[in-house]
Known about the structure:
This protein is of the alpha+beta class. The chain has helices at residues 13-27, 51-58, 65-85, 89-92, 95-115, 122-133, 137-158, 161-233, 238-264, 271-284, 300-321, 358-369, 389-398, and strands spanning 288-294, 325-332, 336-343, 373-378, 402-409, 426-427. A six-stranded mixed sheet has the order 4-5-3-2-1-6, sandwiched between helices. Helix 11 (300-321) links the parallel strand 1 and strand 2. The relative contact order is 0.10.
Amino acid sequence: MTQPTSAPHAVGDDAAKERRGRVRAQCGPQLGPPTGPASGFAMLPWLLLGLGSLSNLVQGETPNPWLGGVGLLVFNSLYIYVVFRAFDPAARRSRSTWWALAGMAVMTFGLGGAYGGSWLLFFPLFGLACGTVLRGRALAVVGAPLTVVVALVAAVHDGWGAVTIAYGTVISMLVTAAILALSETVVELRSTRQELARSAVEEERLRFSRDLHDLLGHTLSVIVVKSEAARRLAPRDMDAALAQVTDIESVGRQALTEIREAVTGYREGSLSTELDRARSALTAAGIEPVVRQSGPPLGPRTEVLLGWVVREGVTNAVRHSGATRCEITVSGAPHQVRLVITDDGRGVRSGPVGLAGTGLKGLSERLAAAGGSLEAGSADNSADDSTDGAADGSRDRAGRGFRVTAVLPVDPAMVPGKTSPSSTESERPA
């Protein structure tokens, strides 16, 4: 006798390998330390541009050397303050940083405008400091007028050499801003990738936990039902009771095999096999099964998903319904397939799928991801045009019950015209 068991959510080798590859790709070695300058130390070597001004001060070639020395010290101090704060986003946007940048502007134009010569190299240094702080529109608003003013001031002292000073100022500002912005983007991307990796791991854990829930819940339910059947049969028919015990052993062994397959994610399901197992489980529980299947053959992906619906729906009927009859109808069409499971049990209050339990909620999410849908509720209130007259008669006789309806698009990988035993309509009550 074929026994009802459960199976993991994986569709096959390709799906499992793709899922594991995605997690490995997101959790791999590329999640290392971010590239780019880590602090303002990378900007300090540019202060060597001020060595010419320092040389002029030491050689006494600068008027008012004490004033120039103080200005050089203040400029360097402000430059160091600004570039170190520029690598902290919160500090970069603070008012103190902007005031320090404004102070640098005063010192740059004061020293460069007063002395000229090598002091004009403070303008590219100031442009570099602006590039570490400014981003986006602020960079354009400050950069354009700054370049023009620098060119005018430098032209007074150096004539056509002002072009070089102005060009150095704007290039140092734009290149610095671009490099630092790119570095910040890389850091953000790495952080996002790490978050995606964590989400992928959590999703995989959730998938695996749902697989084990469905697998063990269904298998243990069948074991309980068959154990009760063996207990009832033992006093009057020992051979039938031993047959039930043999079935329990078979179910347990199959469950162990499928748990191993769930860990590796390699198992594919067969809808016809699940329907046979459903008949066995329903019969052992004292529920009359009626199975109808029609339409063209289904693809592997569709069969796996519908197999999950059959397992979950039958498990609910066996454990909770108290029904005497359960009908399973599979209706295939060129573009979609519909599976309806109806019982005449005590039913539940109609509502969202989530009210029917964790299993049906997980199935709803799986079918939605495949472009399908799942509805569950009272058989009295569930409208299903595809259910034939026999199903309607059962519902009318009972006046209550529970119905699960799954709709899935046909697997595009199926070849038109291919036939299989499932392509002919049959009704096989046990």
